Amino acid sequence: MGTLYVVGTPIGNLEDITLRASRVLAKVALVAAEDTRVTRRLLAHLKARVPLVSCNEHNWSARLSELLTALKSGDVALVTDAGMPSVSDPGSEVVRQVAAAGHSVEVIPGPSAVTTALAVSGLPADTFLFLGFLPRRRVERKKKLAAVARVTDTLVIFEAPHRMRATLEDLLSVLGDRQMAVCRELTKLHEEVKRVTISRGPRILRHTPRGICAGGGRL
């Protein structure tokens, strides 16, 4: 019986791939990828010629039987577009189902946008709360923020570029003014980190950012 390898991949800079991840991706029989186009570029960089199948939030349950079949005769790697599978993607469900079927699951740790942002944010990182992506609807988003309004640990949030300004407004109205860092393009050529208060956030965003907003304790 094969092993499912949960492989961390670069969050931007392809040179951040680990030696172990490179070796595993080159030797498995199949790679299950969030977006095959993204992973194909990584495999080309590694000069690894391995079959790819898509496995994402929309099709993971339908793809599961194919992965279990492949694991009967070989090893499979599970990757996301960037960072560690199971963090803000459906990888955890795949891991749970594969383990329940009796297969071995091994992790190949790699880059994480969460810890990368924390390291460069300048905010306390000894304890933090990761909220992932906030709800798209404003009412639901504010409700989720209200649930953590009393938390004094650093909050780490993923947000889509087109919702960033609205989210900053909600952070200010629900959490109050706090120190934060808005990070975009981490590990890439145009990496940018803005360390400001939430109230100044909208004014320093000259363009719609990508990445993470990490808010610390109340001022």
TrEMBL record:
Write out the GO MF terms.
Answer: methyltransferase activity
Question: Does the record carry Cytoplasm as a key word?
Answer: yes
> InterPro entries in the record, alphabetically?
4pyrrol_Mease, 4pyrrol_Methylase_sf, 4pyrrole_Mease_sub1, 4pyrrole_Mease_sub2, rRNA_ssu_MeTfrase_I
GO annotation, biological process: methylation; rRNA processing
What range(s) does the Tetrapyrrole methylase domain occupy? 3-199
Coiled-coil residue windows: none
| NCBIfam families in UniProt | 16S rRNA (cytidine(1402)-2'-O)-methyltransferase (TIGR00096)
Which PANTHER family has this protein been placed in? Answer: RIBOSOMAL RNA SMALL SUBUNIT METHYLTRANSFERASE I
This chain's protein is named Ribosomal RNA small subunit methyltransferase I
Q: Which organism is it from?
A: Geodia barretti (Barrett's horny sponge)
